[in-house]
């Protein structure tokens, strides 16, 4: 089973296995650890590399001078990797406003603007309103500019 086809549920199943069950699915190779430690490190094959065949995950341990302890450390590392990958993915929340919702909101704003424009008072001198009228200004009503010119 290639790792690309595995889901978090598969990793949860692997994480729930015992160390013996995990070890049965692994290819184990031992090698000489490098680094500080002198003769104890250089002469024994104590480092362990484990490959979990179903997932393809590879872990190594070379902390201890004991091959047995390094095997246990590899199994624990595998369990930790499985546990980390076993978490379900976070639910994706949409962050972008859908085009249709945006259009509806803008249409509502336009309608509200048209309502307010229609309610506006007509300035009789300049005749600015939502729609200019073709009727003449009535003679009985005098505007402020008419009063100033008659004085």
Automatic annotation (TrEMBL):
Domain Prokaryotic-type class I peptide chain release factors: 32-48
Alphabetized InterPro entries for the sequence: Pep_chain_release_fac_I, Pep_chain_release_fac_I_sf, Prokaryotic/Mito_RF
Bias (Basic and acidic residues): 104-116
Annotated region (Disordered), positions in chain: 85-151
Top-level taxonomic group: Bacteria
A Pfam family: RF-1
Ranges of biased composition (kind: Basic residues): 85-103
UniProt-listed PROSITE patterns: RF_PROK_I (PS00745)
PANTHER family: CLASS I PEPTIDE CHAIN RELEASE FACTOR, LD18447P
Family of this protein: Belongs to the prokaryotic/mitochondrial release factor family.
Protein name (database record): Prokaryotic-type class I peptide chain release factors domain-containing protein
Species assigned in the record: Raoultibacter timonensis
Organismal lineage: Bacteria, Bacillati, Actinomycetota, Coriobacteriia, Eggerthellales
């Amino acid at each position: 089973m290639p790792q690309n086809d595995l889901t978090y549920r598969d990793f949860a199943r692997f994480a729930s296995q015992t160390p013996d069950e995990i070890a049965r699915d692994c290819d184990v190779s031992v090698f000489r650890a490098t680094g500080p430690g002198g003769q104890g490190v250089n002469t024994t094959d104590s480092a362990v590399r484990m490959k979990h065949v179903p997932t393809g995950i590879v872990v190594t341990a070379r902390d201890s001078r004991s091959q047995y302890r390094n095997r246990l450390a590899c199994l624990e590392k595998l369990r930790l990797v499985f546990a980390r990958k076993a978490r379900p993915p976070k639910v994706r929340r949409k962050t972008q406003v859908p085009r249709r919702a945006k259009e509806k909101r803008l249409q509502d704003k336009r309608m509200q603007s048209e309502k307010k424009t229609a309610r506006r008072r007509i300035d009789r001198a300049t005749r600015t309103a939502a729609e200019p009228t073709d009727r003449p200004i009535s003679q009985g009503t005098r505007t402020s500019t008419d009063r100033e010119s008659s004085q």
